Write the structure tokens for this entry.
Amino acid sequence: MKKTFAALALAAALIPFTGAHAATISYGDATELKKTNWTSTLNFSKFDTSLGTLNSIRFDLSGLVRGTGKAESDDEGATTVSLTLGSILKLSRPDGTELVLSNPVFSQVFEFSAGDGDIDFGGTSGGTTGLVNASAAEFFVSTSSSDFALFSALGGGSIGLGLKATGASSATGAGNLSTGFQTFAKGTVNVTYDYTPFAAEVPEPASMALILGGLGLLGLSRRRFGNKA
């Protein structure tokens, strides 16, 4: 009798409550490393509204720039030259509006002598960065109802986001300066949905009544058994 009563009591204690904790689900896509300038479309799964209530959407954009820069000064005197290699990566909604920007940049400073008359990007009046890399990561969190509607649907589905990489390299320092740049870029994007899962179903009223009724009858039986003893 005691074991049966304990089992029913445990069953009643395990009836699910309506409270729920937030959860996240993330999807990623990336481009290959290719010469700037370029535009690509990345594809992501939409949030399935049958899972719960959407709280926010986070967009993470990691950008990488790789390339070389070179310069040759033709000034009459010594000069300081700075070479900057960069790319601006822009992630956009399907309508072209901006979600997040990433701007990886590499910079190097050179001390050049007076021009030697040769544009060879070497010697004491010229130089090169060699092959270099730079990376940068940015994010944006949206809680707007318009983004929720755009990025969610019953059963999920998919959405394409535009990613554009623009070369952004420069040189400063000498008044008479010859330069050359070649840059490649890639982007990696993650879309993360923060949501509150729907609460587990509460037992049907008939099932609840059965459990509570059984507990009541067992309690009554125990009292009668105790009186007879």
